[in-house]
């Protein structure tokens, strides 16, 4: 299979499963997830984590619905949102990890999240760049 023939469907599936799982975990177990990632907070912080979980669950639902979408500006916009979002989250995670030091730098779960973001960012960026001219030709 050539690189030019790969469709984003499998990556939408990966994103949908991971985002839905993390979103549900942040909604229903914010204290567990927050501590798993190496942070500690009070009740207000857990409320904010729940709100974040709702947003992450929304990303999971959006990518699940987009998994079979045809080439379009809508699909491109979803991939652009994911590329920018993962880039900004990676930068934020790394900044906080290096500012806070060893407790976060040695957290395996936080590194798994960072690696997932770093892995998916160029994939979605590749699809945006590869399909750029085709999407513009559609004029939809």
Q: Can you describe what's shown?
A:
By secondary structure, the protein is an all-alpha fold. Helices cover 81% and strands 0% of the residues. Helix 4 packs antiparallel against helix 6. The relative contact order is 0.14. The mean pLDDT is 92.
Short description:
The protein has seven helices and no strands. It has helices spanning 9-28, 30-36, 43-66, 73-100, 102-105, 108-130, 132-138.
% residues in beta strands: under 5%
- The percent range for helix content is over 70%
- Overall mean pLDDT: 92
Stretches where pLDDT falls below 50 for ≥5 residues? none
Shape annotation:
elongated
Oligomer: single chain
Q: What characterizes the major β-sheet?
A: none
- Tell me the structural class: mainly alpha
Would you count the extended β strands for me? 0
- H/E element order: HHHHHHH
- The CA-CA distance between the termini, in Å, is 29 Å
Q: Evaluate the radius of gyration.
A: 17 Å
Give the number of helices.
7
